[in-house]
Amino acid sequence: MVEMEKLQKQGVLLRITATALLILTLLLVRFNTQTKVLFLTLVKKATYRDLDPLFVLVWVDLAAAAYNVVHVLICFFFPIKEELGTIYRSLAWASYLVDQGVVYLVFAANSAATEASLLAVKGSNSFQWMKVCNRFTRFCYQVGGALFCGLLASIVLALVSSLSAYRLFRLYSTKQFLLLKKK
Amino acid sequence: MVEMEKLQKQGVLLRITATALLILTLLLVRFNTQTKVLFLTLVKKATYRDLDPLFVLVWVDLAAAAYNVVHVLICFFFPIKEELGTIYRSLAWASYLVDQGVVYLVFAANSAATEASLLAVKGSNSFQWMKVCNRFTRFCYQVGGALFCGLLASIVLALVSSLSAYRLFRLYSTKQFLLLKKK
Predict the structure, then answer these.
(1) What residues in chain B have per-residue pLDDT under 50?
(2) What is the pLDDT of residues A118-160, one digit of tens each?
């Protein structure tokens, strides 16, 4: 049982790391602006609102960070012991399913933002879309850094979700599908 | 044990479904073309090569489909019995890790292609990127259908990867971390 508590502590540490990375990503994207004089008095300000997927990424990361904080607080203030049986199992299932949803959501938002940013870096010849990053270089580097943090956050969340899977599925028997193991 | 063989059969069925959806996606994207006269003699042909993420999606889906076919063939011709212990466990770990990698890769490729296609549908005011889909309507509808199949394939692959997690982690004890369960 001591071993299992250590495991739970490591899960909490992973969740805190993921939350920190998610918040770092969203702050880097949210407060990223660059103002440039394009032509005489024509001034253009680049913000995260210029590209929809960056806007979506900020909200998805915020939601994922909030979920992980709530999860850690619940683990801390209302620890559910394994001896509770059905309640423990229901919570393990809920935690596994929500964790899976969160990791796929964050991963999708990050991939979409990365793809849109790549288009901003390279433009598209066939569509006659101009490059944007040759004018807003600092802005683009900061987005790049944020997306890298987002990728790290996704990897940590994938680990968290594997740990949830482990905590859930080890409860079941090796002999029959979804039959509980004897103590 | 009979129950477990049924589970294995369901895993194989899921993998075949995923493979079919992946191949459908890649065929829909790969053989999608539309030719349009833009202005007098200026003819433009839209193909999947016009948008990098569609090109990447075709190759990622091909690789994922090939992996799943190989996995099913191995399960069919060289079934590994659980009694083999270490070999069974190593294979279960390998299968779990590769399945996780494949589902994240397919999911990322699909999200990136979806984001790029959304940009082609809506254009971007701030970047002065033109809409493309008002000219190549049929082409865009077909890409939309392909991306929907790709999303279904991702969901089936996520189920496959959950099943791999279940088959692996049920082998372990509830008491100590990564300690094998007694028979």
Answers:
(1) 183
(2) 988 888 888 888 888 888 889 999 999 999 999 999 999 999 9
Instruction: Return the closest-CA partner of residue B62 out of B99, B36, B94, B25.
Output: B25
B48/B27 Cα distance (integer angstroms): 11
State the pTM of this model.
0.88
The continuous run of DSSP H or E covering A54 comes out as: helix A52-77
Distances A133 to A10, A27, A46, A140 between C-alpha atoms, Å: 40, 20, 10, 6
- C-alpha B52/C-alpha A10 separation (Å) is 40
Q: Is B5 on the interface with A (CB under 8 A)?
A: no
Q: Quote the CA–CA distance of A146 and A32 in Å, as a whole number.
A: 10
What is the maximum span of chain B, computed from C-alpha positions, in angstroms?
Answer: 78
How far B138 CA lies from chain A's nearest CA (Å)?
17
With vertex at residue A36, the alpha carbon angle to CA A49 and CA A140, rounded to the nearest 5 degrees, is 55
- Do B112 and A115 make contact, defined as CB atoms within 8 angstroms? yes
Cα–Cα distance, B111 to B108 (Å, whole number):
5
Q: Is B129–A126 a contact, with Cβ atoms under 8 angstroms apart?
A: no
Q: Angle at Cα B148 formed by Cα B137 and Cα B63, nearest 5°?
A: 110
> Cβ neighbours of residue B169 under 8 Å, at least 6 residues apart?
A165, A166, A168, A169, A170
Q: Tell me: the pLDDT tens digits for B143-174?
A: 999 999 999 999 999 999 999 999 888 888 76
Owner of token pair 């991963």:
A107
**Which two structure tokens, joined as six digits, stand for A14?**
């992973």
Between residues 52 and 111 of chain A, which touch chain B (CB distance below 8 Å)? 52-53, 82, 100, 104, 107-109, 111
d(CA B171, CA A165): 13
